[in-house]
């Protein structure tokens, strides 16, 4: 981890490991079906998801190496050349793009905070919104924003990003009765359909 907390070294290490993983699958790809290749590659996609909420708020340019890995993985599943258009492949595979996956993971953590089921350390830094007087907003499932104005160096903190992203969700999503219901609502992330959200959550 670098002193700017950009996690660029960690991203580079994950990218190297994934490239090696894909290289080994590519060597045996002629002997695999599309389905069996997808099963192998999905294990790597879940590796990309591990603790990915730590990457929340990073510039797209910093996240790009991970997105390139995901793109390569999608092309490998369908045995397509390097420059094939990848968006339809991600849709067919029900994979959210990396940045959307990071945001979704953060929103799942926020949901757990609102419901009181999050780990203690999260409950200490994220608080459900409680108005000073009884208002309709008291039941809207919002999170309290940070108490102080946030400088640029702190804008990536979970205590800043999670309330901002969570409070932007439609109220019917924020107030979902169960985590399963929350995960199976149509995703607010780029209009992603149901199966995309479900697969994204496998890495939670």
TrEMBL record:
Name of the protein this chain belongs to: Uncharacterized protein
| Organism from which the protein derives | Aldrovandia affinis
Q: Which domain of life is it from?
A: Eukaryota
């Amino acid at each position: 981890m670098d002193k700017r907390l950009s996690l660029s070294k960690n991203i580079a290490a994950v990218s190297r490991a994934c490239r090696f993983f894909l290289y080994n699958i590519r060597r045996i790809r002629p002997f695999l079906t599309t389905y069996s290749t997808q099963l192998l590659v999905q294990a790597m996609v879940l590796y990309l998801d591990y603790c990915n909420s730590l990457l929340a708020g990073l510039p797209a340019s910093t996240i790009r190496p991970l997105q390139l890995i995901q793109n390569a993985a999608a092309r490998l599943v369908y045995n397509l050349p390097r420059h094939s258009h990848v968006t339809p492949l991600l849709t067919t595979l029900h994979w959210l793009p990396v940045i959307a996956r990071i945001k979704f993971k953060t929103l799942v953590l926020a949901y757990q905070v609102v419901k009181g089921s999050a780990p203690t350390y999260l409950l200490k830094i994220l608080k459900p919104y409680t108005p000073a007087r009884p208002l309709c907003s008291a039941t809207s499932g919002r999170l309290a924003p940070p108490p102080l104005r946030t400088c640029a160096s702190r804008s990536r903190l979970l205590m800043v990003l999670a309330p901002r992203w969570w409070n932007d969700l439609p109220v019917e999503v924020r107030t979902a009765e169960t985590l399963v219901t929350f995960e199976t609502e149509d995703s607010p992330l780029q209009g992603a359909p149901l199966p995309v959200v479900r697969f994204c959550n496998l890495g939670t």
